Each structure stands twice: as C-alpha cells, then as structure tokens.
C-alpha cells in the first residue's frame, strides 16, 4: 500500500468512525425520547422502534469495535452479534403486536413520536448513504451491513410515522401494531441476510 493509498484508507476509516459515532449519539438520545413517547401514548410501534434504536446502538458499537481491528474472524463475530440483536427484536415485536391486535388495545396520539420519527427517518437515510459509500470504498462488509441496518432504521421510522399519523388523523388504532409487523418483517429479513447471505 502506497502512502497515498494509506492516507485515503485512514481518511475513509475516520469517516466510518464519525458516521458510527453520530448514529450512536442519535440513538442514545432517541431511546430516551421514544421511551417517553411510547409510555405516554402506550404505543407498541414506538416501543418497538425504541428497541430498534437500542439494537442500532449495539450495531454501531460492534462496527466501532470491528473498525478498530482486522481479520475475517472479527468481522464474522461482529455480523453475528448484529444478527442476534435483530432476531430478539423480531420475537418481541411479533408477540407484542399480536397481543395489541387481539386485545384491541387503542394507543393514544403521540405528537412527540410523530416529530421524532419524521426527523429520524431523514437522519438515518443520510447516514445510511454515507455508510454504504464508505463501506464499499473500504471493502468492509461489516460497515456495509450496518449501513443496511441504518437504512432499515430509516424505513422503520417512516413506517412507524405512517402508523402514528393514521392513528392520529383518522383513528386507525390498528395501524400502530401493523407498523410493528413491518418492523418484524425487516428484522427477519436482516437476520436471514446476516446469517445466510453472501458477504
């Protein structure tokens, strides 16, 4: 590796670290905001999205750990840890959303939840784009995979946002647990990709 290549590699690594630290900070704040919003509105979708933020914190921590070292074994372990987090999220959301639907539990309106998920969707899509480009440039499958996790986080924020808006605007209370099922679908898909996909 030439000095120019090494300089470029180091710059890309710094960018990867920066993207992960921003993601980490955003989700730490997000857990607090979402916990308040979920408890106030008694919303399964907001609670699930809060757990997704917790998994994103774990995923970012794993990527920071992986970027600090090298080796395929370290990358494989990092990917498995991210996959386990998504599997746990899927199980929780499946049980919780089914319980809410079968008991016809009606969540309250959540202006805080609507505002936070709208802003989060924009932030996550921006971070996902940066991670995808940086991971590809580094040839790092862990950063690239975590970029997909961040993209899914943005998609989930949009799905939860839609459920909250439908509940608030036209009283479709079932849109909240339905958004929970959307999260289950994406979580299961990511688990399948991590454990059985080609990295």
From TrEMBL:
Record's keyword annotation contains Membrane: yes
Where is this protein chiefly located? membrane
Q: Does the keyword Electron transport apply?
A: no
The topology of this chain with respect to the membrane is: Multi-pass membrane protein
Q: Where's it found, cell-wise?
A: Cytoplasmic vesicle, Secretory vesicle, Synaptic vesicle membrane; Early endosome membrane
* Membrane spanning residue stretches: 21-39, 45-67, 79-101, 113-130, 151-175
Keyword list (alphabetical) reads: Cytoplasmic vesicle, Endosome, Membrane, Synapse, Transmembrane, Transmembrane helix, Zinc
**Any one annotated GO CC term:** membrane
Question: What family, per the record?
Answer: Belongs to the TMEM163 family.
By what name is this protein known?
Cation transporter
Biological source species: Streptomyces yokosukanensis
